[in-house]
Amino acid sequence: MGRIASTLRPMASVPTDGGLLLDPATDLWADWGLLGVPDPDRATTTRQGLLFRDFIRSAFPSFQFHRLSELLIDLLQQVADGQLTRLIVCCPPRHGKSQLVSRLFPAYWVSRHPELFCAIASYSGELAYAHSREARHYYRITGHALSKDSAAVGNWLTPQRGGCIAAGVKGPFTGKGYNLGIIDDPYKGPEDAKSALQRERLIDWLKSVWFTRAEPGQSSDGKWLPAAQVVVQTRWDHQDMTAWLLAQEVEENPEHWTVLNLPAIAEPVAISMQIPHTCTRVPDWRQPGEPLCPERVPLDVLQRIRTRLGSYWWNALYQQRPSPAEGLLFRKDWIQPPLLVAPGQPRRYAPLVLSCDLSFKDGKENDACGFALLGLLEPQRHPAAEARRQGLALAANAAAAQGSPRGVNSIHSPAGGQDPWAELQIEALWAHRQRLDLPGVIKFLLASLASLERQGLRPNAVLIEDAANGPAVCQLLKRQVPGLIAIPPKGSKASRAHAVAPLVEAGQVRFARKADSLVEELLAFSPRCGVDDQVDAFCQGVLWIEAQFWRGRGYGSSPVPMVFSR
Questions:
Q1: CATH 3.40.50 corresponds to the domain 52-61+85-318
Q2: What value does the mean pLDDT take over residues 462-487?
Q3: CA dist 434 to 100, 270, 329, 444, 518, Å?
Q4: What pLDDT shows up at residue 391?
C-alpha cells in the first residue's frame, strides 16, 4: 500500500457505483478514489442549492451576462425547479439562445437531477450531438461524474443512471424516455420550414414519438417533477412548429405554454406574434425601436441586416412574425410597382386622398392609427382624342400621332377615342402605422399635411372613418383641414378588404416603396385576426375613390376640380 501511496497523488473519492478513472474532471486528486478523502471542490457544490446563474459562472467564466440572458436564465431556473413545464423561446439568430438553452442548461439540469434524463433534438443528429457534447463538457468541468460504462456524445449517463440523449428530429428516440425535452431549431432552413411535406412529417414525429417519450421523474430527495418541454426556434414560416403548437391551444386540453417572443427591434405588442389566451406571454421590457441585445448585435448592425434581408425575411427571422410568402387574402404576386410615365410628364392625381383609421384609447394592447396616401393617376389622353373631345378639326395624319414614347407603360387612351379612364390606376404612395393619443393624432395629421404640401402633394380629401374616435378628430380639425370628410363605415373590415382584393389582383392598385409597411400588412392580413390598421385605411381610401370616380365617371375635361365639403 505504501508503494501505491507513494506513486499517486491524493484525491477525493469517486462515487462507489462507478465513475471514469483518472478523469481529470472528476478524479481531481488522481488517486482512483483509494484514499477516500472528500474533494473540497465537490463538497461546496450542493445539487439542490446551486442556481443556474452560479453554475454558468463556474462552467463558463467568460459568459457575457446581459438583460436578455438574465431573463432567459430566470425562466430556465423555473424549469429546473419544476415550477415551469412548457416554454417556447422565439428569438433572432446569433443572440445566444442555443448556448444557454441547449448547452449550459442541460448540464445544469442533469447536475441537479442526476437520476433523470434530458433529451435534446434538433434538425439534424449532428447538431443535436454538438449540443450534447458541449453539455457533457460543462457537466464534467464543474466536477460532476460520468458513468464509466456510457459517456458517448449522443448518450451519456451519470453514476445515478440519469443523463442526456440526443438525436435529430424524426430521429431514433424510440424506447427512450425523458423528463426534460429540448427542441432547438427543428428546421434546417427555409426549404424545410416551407415544405408542407416536411412540416407534416415533423408534426407526425411530434405526435408519435416526442410527446409519447415524456414522463415525470422522481429526484433523489423524493420529489416528483413533471415532464418539462422547451422549444427554441427562430421563426421561418407562419405555419412552422411554433405556430402549430400554439394552434393546438384551442383544442380540448391546452398545454398552457409560456412564450418568450422577442423581436430583434422592439415593436408594439399588437404587431407581434399572436398568443392564445391559454398561454402566458413573457413581457418585453423594451420600448419600440430598441434593439434586443446591443451587447451582441447593436442597432446599426440590425439596420444593415434589415436592408440586406428585405422585409419578408427580416420580419420572419428577426422580428419573429413571419407572413405567408404568397399572402392570405392579398397575394404577393398581385403587388405591383407604380407605372412609368413619359419623360417630362409630371404625375398628376385626380384626386389625391389621405385615408385614416384612427384609434387613440389608452393601453398598449389597443389598436394603433393607420394612414394611407392614395392617388388616382390621371390618364394621359392621346392628343387626337382630346382634340375630338373639344370639337377641334384634325389634320388627316393627326390620328397616327403617338400619345406616348415607345416602351413607356403610361396610361393613355388609343386614338380611336376610347375612355381614358378605362384602365383606372390607383397608387398607394405612402403608409404609416403609429399608436397615438388624441393630441398626438391632431399633431401628426397637421404635420403630415404640411409635409405633403411642401412636396407638392396636397391631398384633395382627408378621409376619417365616422366611427369610434373619428368624430372627435373631425370636430377638432374641420376648420383647419380643407377637404376633411367623415366616411360612414359600411360592412366589416373583412368585407371591405374582400371588395378591394380584386382591384389589387387586376393590377389596378399599385404600391410605391414608401408603402412597404402597408404591403407587409396586406400579405399578413387575415379576416380572423392580426394587425390591420393600415389595411383598413387603405381599403377605405380605395373604395371611396372607386365610388367617386371609377363608377360614376363624374369628370369633365379636367377631372381634378371637385368641391369637397367641410
A1: yes
A2: 79
A3: 35, 11, 23, 10, 12
A4: 59
